[in-house]
Amino acid sequence: MYSKLRDQMKTKRHYPALKTLEHLEHTYLPQVSHYRFCKVMVDNIPKLREEIKDVSMSDLKDFLESIRKHSDKIGETAMKQAQQQRNLDNIILQQPRIGSKRKPKKDAYTIFDTEIGSTSPKSEQDSGILDVEDEEDDEEVPGAQDLVDFSPVYRCLHIYSVLGARETFENYYRKQRRKQARLVLQPPSNMHETLDGYRKYFNQIVGFFVVEDHILHTTQGLVNRAYIDELWEMALSKTIAALRTHSSYCSDPNLVLDLKNLIVLFADTLQVYGFPVNQLFDMLLEIRDQYSETLLKKWSGIFRNILDSDNYSPIPVTSEEIYKKVVGQFPFQDTELEKQPFPKKFPFSEFVPKVYNQIKEFIYACLKFSEDLHLSSTEVDDMIRKSTNLLLTRTLSSSLQNVIKRKNIGLTELVQIIINTTHLEKSCKYLEEFITNITNVLPETVHTTKLYGTTTFKDARHAAEEEIYTNLNQKIDQFLQLADYDWMTGDLGNKASDYLVDLIAFLRSTFAVFTHLPGKVAQTACMSACKHLATSLMQLLLEAEVRQLTLGALQQFNLDVRECEQFARSGPVPGFQEDTLQLAFIDLRQLLDLFLQWDWSTYLADYGQPTCKYLRVNPVTALTLLEKMKDTSRKNNMFAQFRKNERDKQKLIDTVAKQLRGLISSHHS
């Protein structure tokens, strides 16, 4: 019997050796205890018992080390099985999982089916992990029972239990596994760089808990639910903290989406084993916001490229095929255009269908993230609408504003932008329908977020309109810089200045392009241009640098103002009532008439009355201009004081100037 015990020890069959030792100690040795050789055996038994204890503990340590090294493989296997189960569920359902309830818990414990206390030769010899070749994804995924041999744990537990040291064994096992858990939960510093980094991290965590779950269900108390729950709480908080940190470094929406799918698989796998994973799904909603931000950055570049490469010209159509292609890309209906023969043109440029389709692509990208998050249709709808609103009000709006504010942008481009944004604004209702069709949530549902597309396009259009007004004014200023009046001329001109004739020709050709613009825009632009021109001409006449001017110069100036009035009367833009546009030049007209007709008696007599002929002439303006003429009268002719009519004229100017000053002071008081 003793010889058999030594053989069992030598071949590392420790549990049978312990049984033999028990038989030897309690059954056989007491019968022959009076022999001296038996006393030697009796003395050796405690040593042999300690040796069995030490060797089995050594086996356990080897097992724990192997498990630590191979957690990755065990977790990978468990996650593959969860993926296969999910694919099977999806095939059965034949519909997206959006808003679906969580799948029923499958039999989690089929992943290990090693029998307790297995004493097969394999179990006896192996310290924990068996070599299994990687299987192809479409083949049967090996269960983790094919990867792990738990017999060292069961043997050691049994041996320590028999030896009355079960508590020591339990404490040692739990302490070692806690240490391993902390190591597993420490993410590598470069985890965020690739999806594989995250995958390996998840595999190790899943592997760890799959092993613990199996131990829980197969050892009757080596670990208990409280211990597992405590470990899982720690793992959950550390995992979520690590994911928050590392995912924040990611700027690629595709990687964020892949990470989300991986986290969902990770959560689904552990849920199958009974671990609560709600916090992981809550954290995914945080990552969703980050995903939305990375999408917005990506689409900012897409919109910038579309707007930069556009030719800002109506899309030409030469055939029915091209016409149908454009209409297929963008919701546009115009019976008049349909009737026209080819070739013809759409009113908008290419950026309209391109931008519209990219908004739809963005909506699809948002939808991808919401899949498998166990959200209701309403939650998905709300998420998509909020993200799309950010795309419209922030990203697209900013891209449009940048184009509108570009230094070198021309009036033709601005006009096309106004036309384009008008059509995009009309398409917003189709985007609403598009989202409704995807999520099956009707727009009239309570709390449904409305799309702010109309606001975005209206704001862009208003900005483009303002830019047109500014641009026109700048062009007018450029022409006015060419103005070269001889303020001291004595000659009477008979035609308008060349610079002004060119300016009016430019305005005519510009307003001809405005035919496609909404009526009010064209009218406002025209009125704004005329007012700016009138104000600029008035400033030209009154500027301090012009210290003197003659009646001849004033008459030349009058010819230029008449040219402007003629332009206003010609109706460059339809829709103005009678002389509305001419009113832009009324201040100039009344001032020039007052001076050229020298009608001061009427002006001074009627001043302040609503029916006054020169109602628009400010006395300060009149005095400023009069002072310039007074200087001329004095300095232009050295013999002026000797000529009676000149002296009379000088007195008249002085008298008028005095009366004007009196008018101004009484007005101010």
TrEMBL record:
Residues 2-79 form the Exocyst complex component EXOC6/Sec15 N-terminal domain. Signal peptide: none annotated. The keyword Transmembrane helix does not apply. Keywords: Exocytosis, Transport. InterPro entries: EXOC6/Sec15, EXOC6/Sec15_C, EXOC6/Sec15_C_dom1, EXOC6_Sec15_N, EXOC6PINT-1/Sec15/Tip20_C_dom2. The keyword Transcription does not apply. Residues 111-139 are annotated as: Disordered. It holds the Pfam family EXOC6_Sec15_N. Residues 279-628 form the Exocyst complex subunit EXOC6/Sec15 C-terminal domain. GO terms for cellular component: exocyst; plasma membrane. GO terms for biological process: Golgi to plasma membrane transport; intracellular protein transport; vesicle tethering involved in exocytosis. Component of the exocyst complex involved in the docking of exocytic vesicles with fusion sites on the plasma membrane. Belongs to the SEC15 family. This is Exocyst complex component. It comes from Neophocaena asiaeorientalis asiaeorientalis. The lineage of its organism: Eukaryota, Metazoa, Chordata, Craniata, Vertebrata.
